[in-house]
Amino acid sequence: MSNLETRPLEARHLPAAAALCRREVAYLPFSEAILQDRILDDPDFDPDLNPTVWQGERLVAMACGAPPSEELQTAGGVKLFAVASDVRRQGIATRMFDQIENRLASLGAGESVAIIAGNNRFMQGLDLRYTEALCFLEARGYERAGDGMDMDVDLRKTPLDTSEKEEELERDHGLRVRRLTMDDYQQAWDYVAREFEYPSALATDPVGRRWAYLATSGLKLNPPTLWMAEKDGEFCGFAVTDVAAPERLGPMGVSPEVRKLGVGTVLLKRALADLRARGVETGVIYGAGPYAFYARTVNAVVNAVFWRLRKPLP
User: Facing residues of 101 across strands?
Assistant: First the structure.
């Protein structure tokens, strides 16, 4: 198509961008506020990695990329793309990906990942229900490098009261769970970055600073969405919502020395109760790791499976 113009994403484009995503990208919530938070408010936002394609004054496609960040332990790549259904298979997605991958290479990135790039993400990888996107990415040379899942919790039916368990934890173990405030920012950052550098025995990539960024991002919301367990003034577990993705829970983690006491159960239910209080009927556990724990504790069920995809760059 010769009558197309590529422009970098700007704040004034958000109404059209949100409308495009709502039409063309199923399974996720989209609004101007969500796109502002996930794209423009990403601390590493780069206009050259966020092309939009216009046919006159109609937005027909967009792609959101992000550079790698050593500071926050994130890979560079693509975190979202959408093309209007009536203009697909005309090279528009290829054009946007060429721009993003060339820009990443110019920044020194050795690879591009999809769809798990940047600090403020939409997904933990490519939801396999986006079959057309999977075929496109594989044709471009992206290969599977891992997987993950989201889980749903029916907040209308799941018991979330933790008062008795919290009394037991404080009485028997000197543990309490509380909602943090900005006064706790530095202690929370230091704890999460240190304790969860490798959050499980299966973890191969360090994520401590990334998790610290996400956890403390919850302190900027109103009310704050970061819950923390502490003993003798030291933190020993956390859970947070609305930071890895809107209306999602995660990450969360509990220090090894207090596991098996029910700390994780209290943190999980406290965070999910926040979602329910806002009228959310289905809580989503984002990138669920210990799925048996979530299934047993809050009857969570798998709702989406993701592939993490990577492509080497020249």
Answer: none
